[in-house]
Amino acid sequence: MKPSQALRLLSLAGITTLVAQPLLAQEHRYYYGGLAAGQSNSQIDAKRSVDSLIGAGLAAPISSSNMQDTGYKIFGGYQFNRNFGVELGYFNLGKFSYSTATATGPLNGKYDIEGLNLDLVGTFPLSERWSVLGRVGAQYANTRSTYSGTGLGVTANTNPSKEDSNLKVGLGLQYELTRSLFLRGEAERYRINDALDNRGDVNLFSLSLVVPIGRAARERPAPAPVAYVAPPPAPTPPPPPVVAPAPVVVAPPPPPAPRRVQFSADSLFSFDQGDMRPDGKAALDKFASELRGTRFNTIVVEGNTDRLGAAAYNQKLSEQRAQSVKAYLTNTIGIDGSRISAVGKGETNPVTKPEDCKGNKATPALIACLQPDRRVDVEVVGER
């Protein structure tokens, strides 16, 4: 491949990054790199290639062929936000071969393909870890062919090669193993020139490992856990005056008042996650120790989020966090799970007012202002 062509693709990738970054920038920005390998399948018509080489009708149908091989690609990209990224890569689609016969003897052909690609990659989350991938882009491929055998005409070019630009598309799934490692499975289609100006498709079915660079470092540090302060005991009403010889009348104790405690979601969970942090578990342990000796009637765990992000996503995240707190109180602390209910309110029950925290763009100032809305409320009804 010519150095000038590679330089053009690299320049285009840099320009695309500079133009799109201020337009699409959000908190989910990071660079990434990866390596993919899998099976390639050539659908280039070998008979058309032979006819273009020695003339139509001079060769018999293809007698044998090997149109599958191992392909691989090396790539790097930039994720602008949760849904869009740009990716630049090198690909090698493998080697393919076929054989036929002519009036003067056998004719053998083989070719290999490599090149560079620049893709726009769309990511559409299905859950916290699963996403659907779609890609469309441009690829610049070099096809090198070799022909041999006594059936080759004396005027034929035995080593044609062709560099050509064309489109490529792809579809796949991505699973987030950890915040710093993804697994992808993809099917991609490359439009390729066979070095004799005939075009056909080559499909690549691959698995790849993707390593985000700097993604974990961008996560905001969690604040210190909110200390639980037990509410003061209700005052005991004074006994009624004793009037002889009437019996002493003692007022019945008031019904147990519910205890409602708020935990900051940022103290219990990592940002945008539903699994509890170790210091969040410690806060719940202290809360449970304050209630030791209490006979629980009911416990209600209520998850809440701020208004940033999609409402459906926030509702699901609040439910998952409420269920995580319930599971910890049941499985680790030992409270009867049948007495605990967990609900998610999403962004419907904020503490802040719109005039207090203005704007909709997820700036650091707005995220900090909305921190009281990201919480888990625990209400306990019981008696000593």
Give a quick rundown of the structure.
By secondary structure, this protein is α+β, with helices and mostly antiparallel strands. It has six helices and 13 strands.
Description:
- With 384 residues, the protein is of the alpha+beta class.
- The protein folds into 2 domains: 3-217, Beta Barrel (Porin), CATH 2.40.160.20; 220-229 and 256-383, 60s Ribosomal Protein L30, Chain: A (2-Layer Sandwich).
- Helices cover 20% and strands 42% of the residues.
- The chain has 6 helices and 13 strands.
- The chain has helices at 3-24, 46-54, 265-268, 278-290, 311-333, 364-369; strands at 30-42, 64-66, 68-79, 84-102, 105-125, 130-148, 161-178, 181-193, 199-213, 259-264, 295-304, 340-344, 375-383.
- It has an 8-stranded antiparallel beta barrel with strand order 1-3-4-5-6-7-8-9. A 4-stranded mixed sheet has the order 10-13-11-12.
- The longest helix has 23 residues, at 311-333.
- The termini are far apart.
- Residues 13-27 have low confidence and may be disordered.
